[in-house]
Each structure stands twice: as C-alpha cells, then as structure tokens.
Amino acid sequence: MKILIVDDEQDVETLFLQKFRKEIKSKVLEVMFAFSGEEALRLLGEQDSPEVVYVFSDINMPGMTGLELLEKIKSRFSHIQVSMISAYGDRDNYEKAIKSGAKGFFSKPVDFESLKQEIAELLTNK
Amino acid sequence: MKPERETMSTSELISKITELEGQIVKLTKQTKSDVSKLKTQQNRADEAVNDLKVIQQQLLQQEKLASLGQLTAGIAHEIKNPLNFVNNFSELSMDFIQEIEEELEKLNDSTEKENILELLSDVKSNLHKIKHHGSRADSIVKSMLMHSRGGTGTMDPTNLNDLIREYVNLAFHGMRANKNPINVDIRLDLDESLSKININAEDFSRVILNLSKNAFDAMRDKIAVKGSAYKSILAVRTKDLGDKVLIVVEDNGPGVPDEIRDKLLIPFFTTKKGTEGTGLGLSITHEIIKTHEGSLEIESELDQFTRFKITLPKTTT
Question: Collapsing DSSP states into helix, strand and coil, what is residue B222?
Fold first, then answer.
C-alpha cells in the first residue's frame, strides 16, 4: 500500500521513514513524500491511475495550503483518502477540512500510535 | 422742593454701622468659603486630569501587552515545530536502541559486546534526558500559546495542585528573567488528597500568575527597604474543605495598609508608580474567581504578611 506525506518540513520524511521502518522494510507500506502541495499533485498526476491510496498533508505550507490540496485531490482523484495534520488544532481548520472531505484530522505533534492505527485499519480493509 | 434731609441720632448711626459691619463680616466669610470651595473643586479637577493621564498611560501599556501577546503566540508556535522534532527523534532513537540491544543479545558474549552495551545504555539515558527536557519546554510553550490565544471558556476537571505547581514556577521564572529579579523561597504545601475540580484552567492559571507576581513585586519593595537581612517567602497552600477548596497565596512582604485593602480589587487602582502596574491584575483575578462562584479574602498585617484566601466550590459547572 502506498501513502503520500505532504509537509514543507523536510525532516518529516526522515521521521516517518524511521517511524514506519518495519512496515517499509517488510514492504507492507510504501511511503512517498512531497514538500509542497504543488509537488504532491504532480506526483499523483504522473501516474494515470495513482497507486497512492492515502495522503497525509500538513495544512500550513507556503504556496498551496493543505486545505487547497485536499479539495484538488478530492475533485481529481476521488478514491484517494486524505487526512490533515496541523499544528493549529483549531475548530476552524478542523471544520473546513472535514467539510471538504478529509477522512481524519491529526494535530501536531503527531501521535504516531493513532496514525499507525489509522494505517493498520486501512491495511485490513483492503 | 428739596426733600427734607433725614436726621439720625448718633445712637441710630452707630447701630446702623454695627449692622453694616456684621454684614461685611458675613460676606467676607461667605467669599472666603466660596474661594476655598473653588480651590477644592480645582484640586479635584487637577486630580481627575492626572488620573486620566495615568489611565491613558495604562491603556498604552495594555496595548503594548496585547501586541506582546500576539508576538508570544507567534514565537511559541515557531518553537513548537522544531521542539516536536527534538521530542520525536529522541523517542525514536530510544526505540532503536532498544531494538539494537535485543539484536545484540543474540550475539556471543565478548568484551566488545559488553562495551557496546554499556555505551548504548549511556546513549539511552542521554536520550531520556533530551526527551524529558524537550517535554518540559513543550509544556511551557503550550501554556504560552494557551495564554495568548485566550481560553476556550469551558470548565474542565483539572488537577489544581499541578496547575499551581506549574504556574507558580512559571511566575517565578518570568520574574527572574525580568527587570530587578529577586530571590524568593517558594514553599508549596499542597493537599494531595484533593481530587480534580471543575475550573477554567486557562483563566485560573492567570489567578495564580497574578497573585504570585503581586507577591514578588511587594517583596521586592520590602527588600529595597530592609536590605538583605529580610528573606522573602512565597507560600502557596491548598486544602480540601469537603465541598469547597481553599487556596492560600501568602507572602511575607510589606503588607497592605487597612485604608488601601478595600481598594485593592477596584479596576485601575494601583500603588505602583507610572506604568509599572495597570491596576488590573487583582480586579481581573477577582472577576475570574467570581465566575468560578468562589470568593477572595485579603488578610494582612503591616510588615508581616499579605494573605490571599480563595475559596472555590467543588461543584462549579
């Protein structure tokens, strides 16, 4: 299963790769990274029928925000699940995200246990 | 025809003069009292103008504080992100060392293995320290954000003792980091049998901050007078009173004179010079306690102590 993480902080890549080391090593999970909303859309568009099934995106990024990315993904690739990850755990962002079709809303610092659970659920439902 | 000129006897004349004299004295008195009334009124007007000037300065100060709050929120937020990385990566590395140790156990014993295990245990303990101090910084940043954002306005079950520990500590370090820091012996005597009570943690933390800050300011004044022979002490106590909770914040500062004690809770009343105080700290404190349906009592003895006693009902909803 392939997931895409979108965050402008580059160290997020290292963090996720290490957190999901076992799952990645055993090929249960494949993790891709994009450092902006624009890059995420390009990556998803490069494949005609994107293999990515789940996108986790930061909200506050320079350029395209996570919420804009969410809307674009939902209109172009409606089968992809999207969850938001934000340091601003406020109601406003939460409501906007859910209204635009986000599956979940994780606040920073990311609780990796709940994230792992979310991904595990996805794996069993597959 | 010329009117016949009235003639007066000498005695009549004298009595007339005396009468006139009396009137003059009366008028003079009247004028004097009028002048003094005018003076008092002018004094009052001067005072009012002065008060307004002070209030204007205080409003400026408030404005500065408000923008400082926004700045704080911004800074806190920017610190939070790198701090998350510090905490996450240290946690991850601890997990990895755990795994390395498990792998190493599978190898044959040797002095090299022994050495590696020893070093790994040191690295692990260092990582624990990084995580511990990172979490400390994180909780400080969190409370900074909470304060500058303003609370949610909800009453939630809160561990009052933990809140007091955290905010007395924060007030102390805030004071130490500011102008004219003083040494204070902080004595916490917290009733550990106290269960969680429903309070608005954001608001109530302000109460603790304000009272601590006031105590520090008062004790600083006493140090200026008494010198180093005086040892300043801030004591904070909690006590379970059954259906109520008692919180006492007491300093051994200069005390509050009787004539001022009643004015302490009035908005904009301050004994601090110029813009040092806004005169709002205690009135806000009182407001917050009132919204918790609690009460605030002030006891003081000059040169001995000032004691703020807060009583909160446990069933606040």
Answer: helix
**Smallest CA–CA separation between B87 and chain A, in Å?**
9
What is the overall mean pLDDT for chain B? 86
Q: What is the pLDDT of residues B224-254, one digit of tens each?
A: 888 888 999 999 999 999 999 999 999 999 9
Mean pLDDT (whole number) for B7-15: 85
- Using alpha carbons only, give the angle B154, B156, B158 rounded to the nearest 5 degrees: 140
Point out which residues pair with B305 in neighbouring strands: B301
Longest dimension (CA), chain A: 39
| Dihedral pair phi/psi, residue B177, rounded to 5° | -85, -10
In chain A, the residue whose alpha carbon lies closest to the alpha carbon of B90 is A15
| Packing angle of the helix pair B201-226, B111-149 (nearest 10 deg) | 90
Integer Cα distance of B245 and B289 in angstroms: 12
**Which residues from chain A sit within 8 angstroms of residue B96, using beta carbons?**
18
- Residue A68 in this model has a pLDDT that exceeds 80: yes
The answer, for A92 touching chain B at a CB cutoff of 8 Å, is: no
3-state SS of A61-82 is CCCCCHHHHHHHHHHHCCCCEE
Among candidate residues B273, B278, B220, the one with its CA nearest the CA of residue B65: B278
Token readout for A9 is 């902080």
Residues of B in contact with A15 (CB under 8 A): 85, 88-89, 92
From the CB of residue B119, how many other CB atoms can be counted at a distance below 10 Å? 10
Can you tell me which residue has the tokens 């004071």?
A: B175
* Residue B77, min C-alpha distance to chain A (Å): 8
Q: Which of A14, A18, A109 sits opposite B84 (nearest CB)?
A: A109
- Token pair, residue A95, equals 């409501």
Q: Does domain A2-125 have CATH number 1.10.1200.10?
A: no
Q: Tokens 């005396």 correspond to what residue?
A: B18
